[in-house]
Design a protein that fits this description.
470 residues, 20 helices, 73% helix
Length: 470
């Protein structure tokens, strides 16, 4: 019943969304025709590139949660489209955009500097890690300079990928739960990462209630709420725990958008009421409640003679002990590659009693913590670089969220950006969210998108933004 309703709503959403996007595109196209005596080849290229960029943005989250490899291809196609767009526009305003976000761009270069320094010290290039670092750095830089040339209204349609990915991933997850007895093997990323991103998409869908994308506001609102409800239901059904870490942040951001901050007392009251209701909802799920209690008991048992027990949480503690030990012994350059973690476990952690041979034989390959993985691979500079990846964008998003003069749409985009950055930080404490390149591409593109969409409009800033595409 639920599946049929979701599929029907998904189809209706596709029709409404496509019709609205076509209408917005047609209006923009006709407007330019009226203002120009002829349609130049350059205009056609720019017009097509803008639509292609939005289409690729829509595809990215969908392929992330449905394929192991397609999302990386979409990511690089998106960067190529952005680069061609800059070329067609003769790279105008690139210098000004770079200057405006210079500290953010510099912050995103730190992981690559840490990887390069460590690689040079060890005499062996960390290929996969360097690619990931370049995705952060060059990907963000390129998109920040190219996206402003696309009209804000049109660029907002990129959020369509959130709705499609939210619904399709929910359908896939419920099908797997109903048809697979063991822990489901989700497409694209592992189950914990999968459900955590689903939860993030659901809350972004809620925040987008501040956006009006179609001529059917009631149906649009219903679909956005459906996406949020479906993804939350899927998260509960999957019984994963990592996503719970992000819920307080998601709730607080939502309250700031919809309730405002003029009355802090009311905001805090609403926050505690919402969190209480969320806790009650989670507690009503017997299986998830059991897993939470089980996790607490496993942490309590994992010490002394039992410090190498083979249980979910104790395995994590063994991995973290090993990572911390590697960081202490190699604080400035790490081991030179995150992939050397498993070898360090074999050669050092097991003889020291930090981890059991059984955990090594299971071949986890990483410490189930993004910051600790960077500590192992590239020392404290790597940790600093990853913290900047999370927190540097927040120094832009947070003031924009609280800016009373900003439009509600811009503030919603700022909340979406904060949700992406802070959730990945929190999820990454117990799971390696950046285990695969596809999540790095997803994170980078979302940060860039919401950074541009949360910018003050021309009337709110001393210097106008780069000329938008017609």
């Amino acid at each position: 019943m639920l599946g049929s309703y979701i599929v029907a709503s998904f189809g209706r959403m596709g029709v409404l969304y496509t019709q609205s996007f076509r209408a917005a595109t047609a209006q923009s196209f006709l407007k330019t025709l009226k203002s120009s005596s002829h349609l130049s080849l350059d205009f056609i290229r720019i017009f097509m590139l803008a639509n292609l960029t939005v289409a690729l943005y829509v595809l990215l989250p969908v392929t992330l949660l449905s394929s192991h490899s397609l999302s990386s291809g979409v990511f690089y196609a998106l960067l190529l489209a952005a680069l061609i767009l800059l070329f067609v526009k003769n790279f105008t305003e690139v210098e000004n955009r770079t200057r405006r976000y210079r500290w953010l761009i510099v912050s995103y270069s730190v992981p690559f500097i840490a990887v390069a320094t460590s690689s040079l010290y060890h005499g062996e290039w960390a290929g996969a890690n360097s690619e990931g670092a370049l995705r952060f750095f060059l990907g963000l830089w390129l998109l920040l300079t190219a996206l402003p040339y696309i009209d804000t209204r049109r660029l907002q349609y990129a959020i369509g990928g959130v709705y499609v990915a939210g619904l399709t991933s929910t359908i896939v997850l419920f099908w797997l739960i109903d048809n697979v007895e063991a822990r489901p093997l989700t497409p694209g990323v592992i189950l914990t990462t999968y459900t955590s991103i689903m939860l993030l998409l659901g809350f972004i869908s809620l925040y987008s209630l501040k956006w009006s994308l179609t001529s059917w506001p009631r149906m649009e609102t219903a679909i956005k709420i459906l996406v949020a409800g479906a993804t939350f239901a899927g998260f509960l059904a999957a019984q994963t725990r990592t996503g719970l870490l992000g819920i307080p942040v998601f709730v607080l951001l939502g309250l700031v958008i919809f309730a405002g901050v003029k009355k802090p007392g009311r905001l805090l009251t609403l926050f505690f009421i919402t969190i209480t209701l969320t806790v009650a909802t989670v507690a009503s799920n017997d299986a998830l409640r059991h897993r939470i209690v089980e996790g607490i008991e496993q942490v309590q048992a994992c010490h002394g003679e039992n410090s190498t027990l083979y249980s979910s949480m104790c395995i994590r503690l063994q991995l973290w002990r090993t990572a911390i030990d590697a960081g202490i012994n190699h604080p400035w350059v790490g081991l030179g590659d995150g992939g050397k973690f498993i070898q360090y476990m074999k050669d050092v952690a097991v003889p020291k009693g930090l981890a059991s041979q059984e955990v090594v034989d299971e071949y986890f390959g990483e410490p189930h913590n993004d910051l600790m993985l960077m500590l192992v691979g590239f020392g404290l500079p790597g940790v600093l670089g990853l913290l900047l990846i999370y927190l540097a964008p927040c120094t832009y998003f947070f003031p924009r969220l609280l800016n009373k003069e900003a439009s509600s749409q811009a503030r919603a985009a700022a909340a979406m950006g904060l949700a992406v950055c802070l959730s990945f930080l929190l999820f990454g404490l117990t799971e390696t969210m950046f285990r695969r390149m596809n999540t790095i591409g997803f994170y980078t593109t979302m940060v860039a998108l919401f950074m541009v969409l949360s910018e003050p409009r021309p009337s709110q800033q001393d210097k106008p933004a780069p000329p938008a595409l017609p």
